[in-house]
Write a structure and sequence with these properties.
The protein is an all-alpha fold. The protein has one domain. It is 85% helix and 2% strand. A two-stranded antiparallel ribbon has the order 1-2. Helix 2 packs across helix 4. The longest helix has 39 residues. The two termini are 27 Å apart. Bound molecules: protoporphyrin IX containing FE. Protoporphyrin IX containing FE binds next to helix 1, helix 3, helix 4 and helix 5. The site of protoporphyrin IX containing FE (HEM) has 23 residues, from helix 1, helix 3, helix 4 and helix 5.
Length: 176
C-alpha cells in the first residue's frame, strides 16, 4: 500500500514537472519566437530580453527538467526494486510498451543533457549580455544579443523535438 502511494506520488511529480518543462519549451518555440520574428527588430529584441531578464524562465526550465528526469529515474529504480521488472520489461507493460517507455526515457535524458549542456550556458550568456546592455543597447551589444538569441532559438528547436517525442512515447507505452 505504502509502496503504491510512493509510486503514485513520484508519477504525479514526474507528470506535473514534465507538463511545465514541455509547456515552457513549446511556448518559447511556438509563441515567443514567432512574436520575436514578427515584431520590428528592436521591439522583438526588447521583448525577448525582458522576458528572459524578468520572468525567471531561466530558473523554471532547469528546475522542471531536473525534477522530471530525477522522478523518472527514481521511478525506474523503484519499479526495479519492487520486483516490477522482468529483464528489460516492466511487468505491467507489454514488451513493446516497455521498449517504447525506455526509448522515451532515453530521449528525455537526452533533452535534459542538451538543456543543461547547451541551452543553459547559452541562456546564461544571453542574460549577461541583456543585463549589461539594459534598456538601451549599443549597436554592438544589440548585434551580440541577436546572434546569441538566434543560437538559443536553434537549440530550443532541438530540445523541444526531443521533449515532445519523449512525451508521445511515454504517454503511449501503456497502450502498446
Ligand atoms: C521530456 C521528458 C519526459 C516526459 C514529457 C515524460 C512524460 C511522462 C508521462 C506523461 C508519463 C505517464 C504515462 C502513463 O502513465 O501513461 C510518464 C511515465 C513514466 N516516465 Fe516519463 N517523461 C519524461 C522523461 C522521463 C525520463 C528521463 C525517465 C527516466 C529515466 C522517465 C521515466 C518514466 C517512467 C518509469 C514512467 C512510468 C511510470 C508508471 O508507469 O508508473 N520519464 N512519463
Amino acid at each position: 500500500m505504502i509502496f503504491d502511494t510512493i509510486h503514485a506520488l513520484l508519477r504525479l511529480i514526474h507528470i506535473l514537472a514534465a507538463v511545465g518543462w514541455v509547456g515552457f519549451g513549446v511556448f518559447l518555440v511556438l509563441f515567443v519566437d514567432q512574436a520575436y520574428k514578427r515584431l520590428p527588430q528592436e521591439k522583438g529584441r526588447q521583448f525577448v530580453a525582458n522576458l528572459f531578464r524578468y520572468s525567471k524562465i531561466d530558473v523554471a526550465m532547469p528546475i522542471t527538467s531536473l525534477t522530471t528526469t530525477l522522478a523518472g529515474i527514481l521511478m525506474y529504480i523503484y519499479i526495479y526494486a519492487q520486483d516490477g521488472m522482468d529483464g528489460p520489461r516492466i511487468i505491467y507493460l507489454s514488451e513493446a510498451g516497455s521498449y517504447i517507455l525506455a526509448l522515451g526515457a532515453l530521449l528525455g535524458i537526452g533533452a535534459f543533457g542538451h538543456g543543461a549542456g547547451a541551452l543553459g550556458p547559452r541562456t546564461k550568456r544571453y542574460l549577461e549580455l541583456a543585463n549589461a546592455a539594459g534598456d538601451n543597447p549599443s549597436e554592438e551589444q544589440a548585434a551580440q544579443m541577436d546572434a546569441q538569441y538566434a543560437d538559443i532559438a536553434r537549440h530550443s528547436n532541438i530540445s523541444v523535438i526531443m521533449m515532445v517525442l519523449a512525451l508521445v512515447l511515454m504517454a503511449s507505452a501503456r497502450y502498446a
